[in-house]
From TrEMBL, chains A, B, C, D:
Gene3D superfamilies: 1.20.1250.30, Hypothetical protein af1432 (1.10.3210.10). Pfam families: HD, HD_assoc_2. It comes from the Bacteria. It comes from Lactiplantibacillus paraplantarum. Coiled coil: none annotated. Transmembrane segments: none annotated. One of its GO terms (molecular function) is dGTPase activity. This is HD domain-containing protein. The gene is ydhJ. GO terms for biological process: dGTP catabolic process. Residues 57-195 form the HD/PDEase domain.
């Protein structure tokens, strides 16, 4: 039988805390899971520094990718059973699209590296481009599996992830404002952090999802379930993803990698602690193989070496990161931003290099948006279908969603060493500096001292 | 105020998926959590290779240690409120013991290293001895915090963990057949694997727990809750901890470390891949500092280097471990053990070094035992207290517990390369060897071929 | 010891699916639970006709009342431990208020009867007035228990429920926009319906709750938890409490009781089916004893008799209610309301008495409101407390809450017999009438037929 | 299309707290749910007096019946997908059996009345015979629906429930030691009581279930999941179903009905309180229609009338039942049974009629049994299937199951009025009697006084 259609003689399952079981039916999917590149996702945490705030959130990208696959599989099952296409262009579901959808779901995050966001910032890598490269480069095991389906299959899977695939139903399953990716990570991050803000009624949403010519729509009677999902997403951002302590640990990580890079460029790094696997990135000349060797443990291993560096700043930042010594922070807005230089001056006076020990970091997200053709990246809006077939955009019928539509949420914060907030530093030389600094902060915000 | 009594102005909480919140009230406890040695536990998985079978079980020892602390805190609260001592020796609870109990609970696993069981097997380290060393050696941050309570406090905490502390109530809280440690890990491992075999009614067990002169007892009316806990523990061993796939990954890990050590001893290791942080262990001459630098990520980083080794076996085992390519296995018993050499011979014929690619591994546990003074390590039996104060040993009143009392459970398995089970290896040179091999296996057991 | 202070020798617990355990510590509370009036709450469903839509929601008011008690107990524990009063008027918590708070929590719903809303509508009873009567009338067991505390204690408990008690902290615990009552019913109704819309983080909300002079406030850092509660409440109303099918069953119930009353007033009721326990209500002359004999089962028993009535309408409505044959409905607004008489005419033509078989019913709720002195019943707004002690009203800091503040939500619906939507009634005499009727309905709304 | 094959245009769902959603696909099933006889199950509690111990357990038989249907549906889906029959007698699943299985699952409890166990004891009704009558008697709506499928269909459904249906796969789905009925009630009763003893891994059990010639078997690898189910079942019996307080309330109920019957037979019942709907049962001459009018609320309504009876015993027992005033109890065994007459004598001396106020009640269950042809009702044993197709009986491979196989569990208890345990009855006339009585009880058992 063609590899494409090859089903496992006996369905295989993975026990999953979020979906109970994940069902693997195609040989292709099982083979992809068993590739070196996919197994590597076990060594990359899904939420990076968030586990330093929510200690339960130590789960890796591996489980999330399986989860996105599973949700996609359930969507396909529903579409195949209830909305099969009868004629081309009728808006029904063509189940020949199932395999490309499942592969794209499984592999959508395959290009992620350790501490992605920060790593990309310092070393100018791009996980989306790397995903495409992993899918299409003949050196990877993933590509070798996909090739067996057909020579153009790797490119098709890549097209889905890049949103250039012709069938919008497939694209929107994997990537839209309410897709398998977002649905899995909300439930999963909720479960592992132990908060329940990210909970919503997955079964009901899957039930009201329907294909149509323009992609995917939701039956009107499911409006409140969709609304609940949007609100859950908003709350996870507010309460978990934007948590100031995790962001402060990311600031430390950013400065730590930057310092290492700066030292390397100025040939000042200790010989003993040469980070072999990072050199291609310091040299800005890396191969896919170099990239695929990295994971959280590799970076942490170098940090552990750097603890013993003769460079004080490198050693101190590495220690702060590994031993979880977060910076403190306060909210800033346009009015109070001009105060930052004065604060940085005080921080320098207290003995810190202000460049490596402070940051202004904004965490903003657009919880939901209706389609706006003038935007750089207009989002596919969420459409609800009435009984007579007509569509209504979500925010026109939900007060809650309208309240957060098109608004950026989150805050901007100024991060600084915890030492600046010392209170009982009786004998401390820097006491007057600390006291002056503290006058700038009230109710978690920067203020003009009076 | 004395450091010992210093309470946080505002109780601090950690969000925990198992206990909802973990409440920190003492400055001492918060300071211990913030030590370098304790934060390191974030980088050591609680269940080692089990996460390769149950992908959700990626949680670290950090959360478990907080959980054991939290259960101990709740036991102390209950004992203080309901059973305070009135006179020395009356069997009541003396709340002056609270701090030593909490510290011992929090730190009982502080000496664990990466993949403890296997690592100890190859390098002859001992996590219990290391725990004591971390508590009592002046070089650690943990010791420095404990010292502040009183000079003999580190030794007291160590005594609890070593079970030599005079008050049996404190010892049994942390270490007995139904202690805070076991109760937390059953619930936690259950949660993260996504199975529910480890669930039992923690609140009810805490309610029926009572101090007495001999340690800790349980009110008779709680018998079924205690029974349920014992059965849950048994089932977690059978279904999760003894899972053949995880054990096979542990076999690979064991052989991988052994091979590296063998190569090092014979000076055959590649220069490029010198595992700097492992050298003290290869040389059998390591300091506490050396030990504390290790974690899962450090070992995995070396494995990643070893993938590229010129030594075929080292490279292959490293790849099998990192890419999760488990061995297969079959049950063995006394009758069929004599068949193993013949099987190993076939495995050699198929091109594998039988030493590095097979193992016979038994997973046995004593789910519960009544006290038996003739045993090497007699266990503290579980006592139920009747209304008139008399005690009954658990297995005398529970049929279920009696069924598994004093019996070792688990199985013995022979592990071998998956290749030996190839079926459609039409063109394969080794086909006849595989076929002969397969005649030895029926219904997951070794059998005499007919 | 004074009865007021009498604690149970051993705390008593009730196993509860929502709060795990409910802890009873005072003899007074246990005695109240054991009164005839309180036990009667077991025979009155918490959600009336909602169980006909969500079949799991068959829970009674008994469990809810225990739950409100338990949340109140936990609030008191928190206030006593963390915010005890030091001097009169300092805004701290005076734990002498605990017992009155606990009793008011436990008894706040004691005056509820079967299918309260509808019953009150037809028979002009008032469950709030009846609650006060049960507390203060010497004939009840509840009053006899409360009297033992002190002669004025029944009146104090009643004052809390009537919001005239001097201490606003006690009043707001039991009755405000975020009180023990609402918190319990959201969690409980969520659990029993099997939806999760009503879930919110109770533990966190209890942690950030604080007493102050004006009543109860919430620490600023708990803003998102409070927001989540408001949104959950909104969603439970939208998805559960306002469900059109439950409302249609309430319409039938209303018409059924009305018809029975009409028949009684015109002496047309069958002798056999004399509803002995309802007569005082038909005669509009009932005692407290008469009221306390009623429960869901008593009413259903009469309905069962009425099934066999010679009065066609009474028999049919009773059957529709007992056998769950809901009416259908469509949304109405100001524009389409004038269409209703035409629809009723068609319904009459199809053989139904439009008075007994249709209704226009609006389900509106104010999910949250800031204080507005011009309102008839201004609500206590939710205040958040910043670190420096200043207060902020919730909707000024939450976009989501602001979106639903002061807005009435819900919809207005026109209910009618399902028969009017018949489609394949080929041989039916009324087919043309049905067809005409159906032209008035599109996408779940009344429309002008075209 | 034939009514038998008629599928709903759009699958209908019921939200269920245990199974999340229950999926209705056949018009027949929907029509059965909408019958008067099935809707009546909403008014009969699943666990009778157990809700007086576990207040959450107020759920009715309605939800349970839907749950049994849903589990059966999932079994059929699995069998149809993975084990379809290829040739008659090959042990595969013939999906033409689906509808009869689903109907039998849904209707297996349709003959239950209020407080079945006790009611049957007093009035000699038989819920199994009544179930068959409801299915086969042309006067019921249920029969009218089933008739539409085919004239012999009602009898077929009845045969499944009576275990005389020729296909053992269908019979064992609904009724065996591990069937849809038991699986649903364990999960459901666990959920509503709020205990978790009844939890087991339903998804996994459904996965390992397989049809074969002899009925249903389980794949060997699922052994521990099946074992866990048996143990859960055992624990639910021990901790929930056999709870002494619920049993004592059942004793009161039994005596209350018996007293009413005795009074009626001796023409001593008050005219005012004539229990119209019970008369046919007092007269031992009832029709199916009479039976179907009964429900929990009807009985409670009569109890409420009887509270005011001039007969002291009837009034007192009714009050004890409605106001939940349980009897006390102590364990009895063969040795101590001869003490009971002496105790009853003391109880008489304290003013109680020993016949109506005491009972000796045993709660025994056989948690699991292997097949024993010598038994009156030999049970279908649970078979595990090995890879080569051979079968092993469960207790031969599970220590835990063997421990409870063929053993009756539970206890025998003597119930008596709580007054007998009075302690501080200083001024009480009966104090010496109470004191003598109390010498017979130690550690919850009858003992010979010393």
């Amino acid at each position: 039988m063609a590899y494409r259609q090859q089903l496992l003689p006996m369905e295989k399952v993975f026990r999953d805390p979020v979906h109970d079981y994940i069902y693997i039916q195609h040989q292709v999917i099982l083979d992809l899971i068993n590739t070196s590149e996919f197994q590597r996702l076990r060594r990359i945490k899904q939420l990076g520094t968030t586990s330093l705030t929510f200690h339960g959130a130590e789960h890796s990208r591996f489980g999330h990718c399986l989860g996105v696959y599973e949700i996609t599989r359930r969507i396909c099952d529903n579409f195949e059973r209830n909305y099969p296409t009868q004629a081309p262009g009728d808006g029904g579901w063509d189940d020949h699209e199932r395999l490309v959808a499942l592969c794209a779901a499984l592999l959508h995050d395959i290009g992620h590296g350790p501490y992605s966001h920060t790593f990309e910032h310092i070393f100018h890598t791009d996980h989306e481009a790397l995903t495409v490269q992993i899918l299409t480069s003949p050196e990877t095991e993933v590509n070798q599996v996909l090739q067996q389906v057909s020579p153009d299959f790797p490119a098709q899977v890549a097209a889905v992830i890049q949103k250039t695939y012709p069938n919008p139903q497939v694209v929107q399953m994997i990537s839209s404002q309410i897709d398998a990716d977002r649905m899995d990570y909300l439930l999963r991050d909720s479960y592992f952090t132990g908060t329940n803000y990210g909970n919503f009624d997955l079964t009901r949403i899957l039930r009201v999802m329907k294909p149509y010519q323009g992609g995917i729509t939701f039956a009107m009677e499911g409006m409140h379930a969709v609304e609940d999902y949007i609100v859950s997403r908003f709350q996870m951002y507010m309460q978990v993803y934007f948590h100031p302590v995790s962001r402060s640990m990311e600031v430390i990580l950013d400065r730590l990698l930057e310092r290492a890079n700066d030292l390397y460029q100025s040939h000042a790094v200790d010989a003993e602690a040469t980070p072999v696997m990072l050199l291609p990135f310091f040299n800005n000349d890396f191969t896919l193989h170099d990239y695929l060797r990295l994971d959280d443990g590799v970076l942490n291993t170098y940090f552990s070496h750097w603890r013993d560096s003769r460079d004080q700043i490198l050693a101190d930042l590495a220690t702060r990161f590994l031993d979880r010594r977060p910076l403190k922070s306060a909210r800033v807005d346009e009015t109070t931003q001009p105060l930052i230089p004065a604060l940085q001056k005080l921080i320098e006076q207290a003995g810190f290099d202000a460049h490596y020990y402070t940051d202004t970091n904004d965490s903003y997200d657009l919880p939901y948006d209706a389609y706006d053709p003038k935007m750089k990246k207009p989002r596919t809006q969420i459409e609800l279908q009435q009984k007579d077939g007509s569509l209504l955009e979500l925010s026109t019928v939900s007060d809650l969603v309208r309240a957060i539509t098109g608004k950026v949420s989150g805050d901007q914060r100024f991060f600084f060493p915890k030492e600046m907030l010392s209170e009982n530093a009786e004998s401390d030389l820097f006491k007057p500096i600390y006291q002056e600094f503290q006058q700038y902060i009230l109710n978690d915000r920067l203020v003009v001292p009076h």
